[in-house]
Write a structure and sequence with these properties.
The complex is a heterodimer. By secondary structure, chain A is of the alpha+beta class. Chain A contains 5 helices and 27 strands. In chain A, 15% of the residues lie in helices and 36% in strands. In chain A, strands 1, 2, 3, 4, 5, 6, 7, 8, 9, 10 and 11 form an 11-stranded mixed sheet that branches. In chain A, strands 16, 18, 19, 20, 21 and 24 form a 6-stranded antiparallel sheet that branches. The N and C termini of chain A lie far apart (67 Å). Chain B is of the alpha+beta class. In chain B, 19% of the residues lie in helices and 38% in strands. The chains are: A alpha+beta, B alpha+beta.
Chain lengths: 425, 268
């Protein structure tokens, strides 16, 4: 027999819930039971990861709840998302009913630099399961398997739709998502198992790197699209990169004297500012770790000027500028401000990648107007013309020079907690 | 146009950095209408906002390598050239000021200031404009009048305060007919008299200019006192002083020769 106090409390709760109910377009007019909520989401088979808030520690085993919040679950491309969801009842009486997973989708960033998101439908097997939540903290866990995941590099917010009608034997309530979806964690799909400095992958780097090469699959394609996407800030219109050779020394994320990439500082800036300027060494280093995140090992090389102190270089368009506009290409003389006497590129085997600048000419002398991917390491990178050495490609007449200083990439990634970097070598 | 002004403060050429906090000059920056927006711990930089239009950020150079910003690049645009080309008004006499286009394509321009005891760099960075495809486009112009005014005022105070930071208070002394507080440099023994106290006693009026100088008047006589400069202008004639016009505790101090010169004027 129910006590009058309980019935009164229940009526009050349901009235409150009724008036706070969502839009009238919802399929269910039933109120939501208060104090019934998801108390845990535990992703299965995902990669052990970290981020700038957790590093050097790894994420906690249970993604939600966690402090600091775990924002992402990382999977390899094509892998099913498996998540154990726990519902909990903090009311003082038991509830029971049925849980029906209905739909899942990934809300992904729009292509190019378009603002907003697109929906990528995922699949799940619709099934109805009985649920019983005992009083005062009773809970039940259900495993949800989501298939049809991208078989390519992707990132987005996981959203799930489900029905959850519950009753206490007297009243009916609905704690499902109705016509809407509930946002779970964000999920990133990587091309391959992370390696190198990303052997413990950073989820916040994945949020950006997977935008840059969104949709690519396989080593060659990821190499190309990561380079191109980083150059054009693909699918990341609110957090873009720009190439700025004149950065001040203590503004650099890559501490040359420590061989350490301050990934925490870089990501902090990237998530805050509309534009994050990088010099060539940072571009190469971040390209390297972004590729390592996707299981592709590369190195950073420094190309030194062959003679004198600086490059005369063929026209380049800095990342951030519109490389389709010829007027954005500049050919800087050694004495010009912004001129430089070396450049950093990423290299895999004998192929070179440079996300920092679009090159007006290819190494064959043809119009290129894009950053560099899959260009051979070769003598064309610097060439004598009229007794001057021009750098960074476009020559068929050069003599062999050896400008490469190999393996200049970061040997550690780190974080800072105050003004100076803290080495974690 | 919204702009970002990035101030690089004194890296003393002798490796000294006596009062890093003073380099930010927050009291001065707020006194000309800016509000403190935030402080970037990582960059050791203050950000100031003015009427939502632009942000002034002030930071301290900490590494020797940062002096590359203010190196003797062969293509710096000399100050004299900048004055002709851009109409830049006068900066502290006795300092070597150079403007150059750091990276015009990025809308970033720099200037360096070198005085006898320290040097610092200033970077003025335009908030990038974007086209419809969200690519950056080059900004419209270099060194707006407002930027230059701020730069001049900031430079004057930075020079004047840093020059005064090592001076010690001494007993009052009489210069040009008024008994005023004094400062003395413990190393050079150079002495300075309090200009504010002197003008109060001698009945001169002050008119402060936003560029960081003041005009003193008494009757038909006048004098231009540029803060941080080694010269003052008395009734239209520039007079070179043994040392700079300095500032300590919001009071301006000048070489006794300046007070003696002003004291000769009756103002009647």
């Amino acid at each position: 027999m129910r006590s009058p106090t309980r019935i009164l409390s229940l009526i009050v709760s349901l009235l409150l819930a009724f008036f706070s109910a969502e839009s009238p377009t919802q399929t269910s007019d039933l109120p939501t039971w208060p104090d019934v909520h998801q108390s845990q989401r535990d992703y299965q088979n995902n990669l052990t990861a970290t981020d700038r808030h957790y590093f050097p520690s790894a994420y906690a085993a249970v993604e939600f709840p966690a402090t600091p919040p775990v924002t992402h679950a990382l999977y390899l491309k094509g892998q099913n998302i498996v998540v154990r969801v726990t519902f909990r009842n903090d009311l003082w009486f038991p509830l029971w009913g049925n849980l029906t997973w209905k739909n899942a989708r990934l809300r992904v960033p729009k292509q190019h630099k378009d603002l907003g998101t697109d929906i990528l439908p995922l699949q799940l097997t619709t099934s109805t399961m009985p649920i019983y939540l005992s009083a005062n903290g009773g809970s039940q866990t259900f495993e949800l398997t989501i298939s049809g995941c991208p078989n390519y590099v992707a990132v987005g917010g996981l959203e799930v739709q489900y029905d959850l009608p519950l009753t206490d034997g007297l009243m009916l309530g609905d704690n499902g998502t109705r016509n809407g979806y509930q946002a779970f964690e964000r999920v990133a799909f990587l091309d391959n198992s992370p390696t190198g400095l990303q052997a413990l992958p950073w989820a916040d780097l994945a949020e950006n790197a997977c935008r840059w090469c969104f949709g690519s699959s396989g080593t060659d394609e990821v190499l190309r699209e990561m380079t191109r996407g980083m150059h054009y800030s693909n699918r990341n219109p609110e957090h873009m990169l720009s190439y700025f050779p004149g950065k001040e020394t203590d503004e650099c994320y890559y501490k040359g004297d420590q061989d350490e990439l301050d990934l925490t500082w870089f990501l902090n800036d990237l998530f805050v500012y509309l534009w994050t300027p990088l010099d060539c060494r940072e571009f190469a280093a971040i390209l390297e770790v972004s590729l390592e995140l996707n299981g592709i090992a590369t190195t950073c090389d420094r190309i030194w000027a062959h003679i004198s102190n600086r490059f005369y270089y063929w026209p380049l368009c800095h990342a951030g500028m519109d490389s389709s506009m010829i007027e954005n290409y500049t050919d800087v003389r050694p004495s010009d401000p912004g001129g430089f006497n070396f450049h950093f590129i990423a290299r895999r085997s004998n192929l070179v990648f440079d996300a920092a600048a679009s090159y007006k000419y290819s190494y064959l002398g043809l119009a290129h107007h894009n950053p560099v991917w899959h260009w051979p390491v070769g003598e064309h990178w610097q060439a004598p013309v009229s007794n001057r050495f021009f750098g960074l490609c476009y020559s068929l007449t050069s003599k062999a020079v050896s400008p490469y200083e190999q393996n200049q990439g970061p040997i550690a990634v780190g974080r800072t907690t105050n003004a100076g970097p803290t080495s974690i070598k | 146009m919204s702009i970002l002004i990035l101030m690089l403060s004194p890296a003393l050429s002798a490796g000294l950095l006596e009062e890093p906090e003073s380099c930010f000059l927050p009291d001065f920056v707020t006194s000309i209408g800016h509000s403190v927006e935030r402080f970037d711990l990582q960059r050791q930089r203050f950000y100031f906002k003015k009427a939502g239009q632009y942000t002034v950020s002030v930071r301290v150079l900490r590494h020797e390598g940062d002096r590359t910003l203010i190196n003797e690049d062969e293509n710096q645009l000399g100050f004299a050239g900048a004055q002709r080309e851009l109409g830049v008004p006068g900066l502290p006499v006795g300092t070597d000021v150079r403007f150059w286009n750091q990276a015009p394509v990025w809308g970033q321009w720099s200037a360096s200031v070198r005085s006898r005891r320290f040097r610092f760099g200033v970077v003025v960075e335009a908030t990038p404009k974007m086209n419809a495809q969200r690519f950056r486009v080059a900004p419209d112009h270099v060194w707006t009048t407002e930027q230059v005014t701020f730069f001049e005022a900031y430079t004057r105070r930075l020079v004047a305060r840093n020059e005064a930071s090592s001076l010690r208070s001494e007993a009052n002394a009489t210069f040009g007919g008024a008994n005023v507080p004094t400062l003395r440099c413990p190393r050079t023994r150079q002495r300075f008299g309090n200009l504010h106290a002197w003008t109060r006693q001698r009945g001169w009026s002050w008119t402060h200019h936003e560029r960081g100088y003041a005009t003193l008047r008494k009757g038909s006589d006048y004098a231009v006192i540029p803060l941080g400069a080694q010269k003052i202008k008395v009734n239209g004639t520039w007079i070179t002083l043994p040392d700079l016009v300095v500032e300590q505790g919001n009071e301006w101090y000048v070489d006794p020769a300046a007070l003696t010169e002003l004291g000769r004027l009756g103002g009647d």
